[in-house]
Give the backbone structure.
Amino acid sequence: MQGGVFVISAPSGGGKSTIVEALRQRVEGLGYCISHTSRAPRPGETQGVDYFFVDRNTFQQMADKGAFVEWAEVYGNLYGTSVEGLRHQIFAGRDVLVDVDTRGGSNIKHRFRESVLIFLIPPSLKVLEARLRARDADGETAMQTRLAQAAEEIRQCKRYDYMVINDDLEKAVSEVEAVIVSARLRTPRQLPVIRRMFDFMS
Ligand code: ADP
Ligand code: 5GP
């Protein structure tokens, strides 16, 4: 049985990395698709853990060779979901989280019809700005670019299957977990398991 694809999107500072990290700690059997990016690593980010950091040229060559399921330019940098990172995991039956922008989310839904799209909404633009400032990872200009895009990103939430408000972190993590657990309990996914349990079902 093929694993599921769970897309997490939000405006920058919306809590994607934080919530993805928490889910990986507590949801059993959940993989993460590490994207490639031409962005420079932030302090504390590790090559091959947070992203595969590559230069723009290398990224472009990979894109030309079809190494990405989808890729996009976001806030002036290139980001892509690798075929290797996604397809191989789901074809091995593993559920995978992907953290992509809203264009990436649409493209993944197009390629993987059964994928589940989850959007994280900040409690307000003011709180979002405060969180971005507190993270202090991108410099003032880059942060302003990200904030300027926030409303447009949030507007796209209506295309998503689920919307989770990321006010209280624990509550938000539990709600995303609930979405993943429910998807795992859907009949098409459970039926093969039940068939193996009861001879009379086959
Ligand atoms: P993204 O990956 O979407 O850009 P991050 O996960 O880096 O966002 O979160 C941005 C900042 O906001 C981080 O400093 C993170 O610790 C903080 N943060 C995320 N969610 C919450 C929350 N529910 N309450 C308080 N701070 C949060
Ligand atoms: P950041 O630089 O803050 O890590 O990410 C910036 C934006 O790029 C976020 O919206 C994030 O979801 C998006 N992103 C990260 N990886 C990918 C990817 O592989 N594809 C696409 N389309 N967007 C990505």
